[in-house]
Structures are given as C-alpha cells and as structure tokens.
Amino acid sequence: MTNTEQSDTSTHSTKGSYVTDGKEFTRDTQYIETRITRDGADGYPVEAGRYRLIAARACPWANRSIIVRRLLGLEDAISLGTPGPTHDKRSWTFDLDPDGRDPVLGIERLQEAFFKRDPDYPRGITVPAIVDTTTGAVVTNNFPQITLDFSTEWKDFHRDGAPDLLPEHLREEIDTVNKRVFTEVNNGVYRCGFAGSQEAYDAAYDRLFTALDWLEERLTTQRYLVGETITEADVRLFTTLVRFDPVYHGHFKCNRNKLTEMPALWGYARDLFQTPGFGDTVDFEQIKQHYYIVHEDINPTGIVPKGPDLSGWTTEHGREALGGKPFGDGTPPEAP
C-alpha cells in the first residue's frame, strides 16, 4: 500500500520504519477521497482514456484494483502503470519501466503526482492511486472506494459478460463480510508483523487465527464468500491469502499454520487463483521482494527466501462440487 504503513511517521530509515516500539500497529486510513463518477460531482467525470491506475503488483491493496479492472474488462478505459516491488521512504518508483519513468505520466516517482495535487501532501504515498493524465495529478488513493467505483460508476465500459461483483441483493452481506475480513485478516497480518510489543503481537495473532478459523468453517460448505459467484468479497480476501505462505507466515510471524494446512481455505484460494483475472495478476517474486527488502526493520539482512514451493497453486481443488459458477451467466476475461 504505502511507504509509510503506520500512522506514526516521525522516524524513518532509508527505506522506512514500520514498527513502533511498545505499540500495536495502527493503520493510517486517511486517503484522498475524491471520486471519479458518472456525474462528475467531484470534478472528475468517468471518461475512457483519461485516467491511469498506478498499482504495484507486489502490494495486496493495489492487487485488488488490478484484479477488478481485469475482471470487468476496463483495460481499454483505464490504463495501468506498475511501479517496481521496492521503494524507499519517499515513494514508489517506476524502476521496471525504460529510463525508470512511467511511460504515460513521464514521472520517476509516484510522489510527483501526489505533489501535483498538493505540493504539501503530508501523508504516505500509497498504491493504488488513480492519476488524471490531463493534469498529472492524483485524483484518489482511496483503495476500498476505487474498486467499488469500478463496479458501479464505470459500468458503461464493462466488457460483455463481465461479472457483477456487487449484486444489489447481496450488498449488505458483502459489506458485513468485507468489514470483518479487512479488520481481522487483511489488516490483521500487518498487526502481527508490525507489532511493537509481545502483548500486541499475541493479541493480533489470536484475532487473525480466530478469523481464519471462521473463514475455514464458512468455506467448507460454500464455494465463494457470499452467494454463488465471485464478488468483491472474494477479491479482497484472495490478495491476502495468496501472500500468506510466501510472506505472512514467516516474515509477519503468522505461523500457527500455513494456508496449505487449512483445507477449505487452501482449496478456495487455489480455485480463485485458477480463475482468469486472479492468478494471472499475481507475481510471487515481486511480492517476496517487496516485503523482505522494504521492511528492513523486520528483515535487516534484506535476504529474500527462495521458498516456498508454489507448484501447489495449479493443482486440482475440487471446489466445483460445492456448486456455483465464478462468472454466473457471464464469461471469463480473455487471456492477458
């Protein structure tokens, strides 16, 4: 998400400090809340080709937006810029692109687009972010709203056969599930990894695995989190699960068990991974590089582990027996 994953940003090393001694991790959730909408109420109307999504494949919060953009077929309407997996305390950088610059925006650091919006921008430079290519300024970095707006405000540009990720009759249940998944799982792994005391870590660990046990039970009898098709809820959980064994189990000390040792969750994660739009957005090497190199106060050597063995992600999962179809009456996106 950010080069400053915590609310206390008073002390930083070259790459950033993520643990505050003696304290539990508290995420800074203040984002630029401007929205891109059909009516352009905030000054930014939906317009194909105008906006560029900046989303690092390494980051789980950004990975969500890449998945939803692909599932809905918004690739031609919203271009994609992908920063490299590592960054320093200033900003994500475009070191994967020729000359280290985003080919559309012409910038070396995402920070430049934030400063175009506000020269005194005081918070972390986060992904995903959407930039207005006509001005070069960030429109929003409000990651939970970005994917919701992709589903609702950008409907005129959805591909034929795109899934409904926010079915109206399931919206209340999706919101309820998303709230628990965010607080206990998506953010729960960070509360473990960035805990500044034994007490904070122990409490975070217990909360995380209580929630994972709840999900294991829920997914034993149903194929998807809510309803009979993939929804926003599945996207939000998937990006944490796919990082669990390569990163969170060891690096963040979320080690009661591996994902591969929870049968329903492991089958569910493989089912989604093998669904077009999910696994084809995942880059395990970038994921590991990001966490193990950037979080130098947790992993000061910067050594990136060679494991784990990832071959299991493409094995049979058997989840079809639970019913449901990933795209309902729609169709999968074309191969990337």
TrEMBL record:
The residues that hold glutathione are 92
Q: Which SUPFAM superfamilies match?
A: GST C-terminal domain-like (SSF47616), Thioredoxin-like (SSF52833)
Q: Name one GO molecular function term.
A: glutathione transferase activity
Provide this UniProt record's keywords sorted from A to Z: Transferase
GO CC list: cytoplasm
Q: Where is this site: Lowers pKa of active site Cys?
A: 248, 291
Kindly indicate whether the keyword Acetylation belongs to this entry: no
- Sequence segments annotated as region (Disordered): 1-20, 310-336
Q: Does the keyword Acetylation apply?
A: no
In this chain, composition skew of type Polar residues spans 1-17
- Catalytic-site annotation from UniProt: 59 (nucleophile), 190 (proton donor/acceptor)
Q: Where is the GST C-terminal domain?
A: 167-291
Tell me what this protein is called. Glutathione S-transferase family protein
Q: Which organism is it from?
A: Arthrobacter echini
